[in-house]
Amino acid sequence: MTHSGKAKVTLPTDDQILITREFDAPKHLVFRAWTTPSLVRRWWAGIRGEMKVVDIDFRVGGKWRYVMLAHGSFDVAFHGEFSEIVPDERIVTTEIYEGAPEPAAGEEVRNIITFNEQDNRTQLSLLVQCPNQQVRDLIGNSGMEEGMQEQMDVLEKLARSL
Predict the structure, then answer these.
(1) pLDDT tens, residue order, the chain (162 aa)
(2) What is the CATH number of domain 8-161?
(3) Strand 8-10's sheet: what is its strand order?
(4) Contact, 36 vs 43, CB < 8 A?
(5) Which sequence spans correspond to the domains of the chain?
(6) Contacts of 90 (CB under 8 A, 6+ apart)
């Protein structure tokens, strides 16, 4: 299956990845789909697998963990902690890939997700702040973009259905 390619990926600095995507749904529905475990379970794996674990303690200081069975053959797992939540507008969280060595404190990848609305459409911005260029490049070369494009398409379809 192909994806729409609607998400735009840029590299604003040596240690950042910026993903922007417009959704044909109001921001409160995109935010809800992004933060509700039963809904995350439906879109996060895109078309590459199925979600085995979606744990979200959605509060500042709360933790999250996702585990996906990818292509029916291996687990892909991430976890992190929420440091800022502005309902329907902004989420800041760390993200740690469980297949790599645990980063030192303060060296985690940090995601800043913003939701802006105009004319009942949502502009989502996901800024991935990496500790250095090496980590940024590892993420960029991991196949992340293809999977992200797929999951964003599924997310839009889900948000429109809510």
Answers:
(1) 456 779 999 999 999 999 999 999 999 999 999 999 999 999 999 988 899 999 999 999 999 999 999 988 999 999 999 999 999 999 999 999 998 888 998 899 999 999 999 999 999 999 999 999 999 999 999 888 888 999 999 999 999 999
(2) 3.30.530.20
(3) 8-10, 16-23, 121-129, 109-118, 90-97, 74-86, 63-70, 49-56
(4) no
(5) 8-161
(6) 84, 112, 113, 114, 115
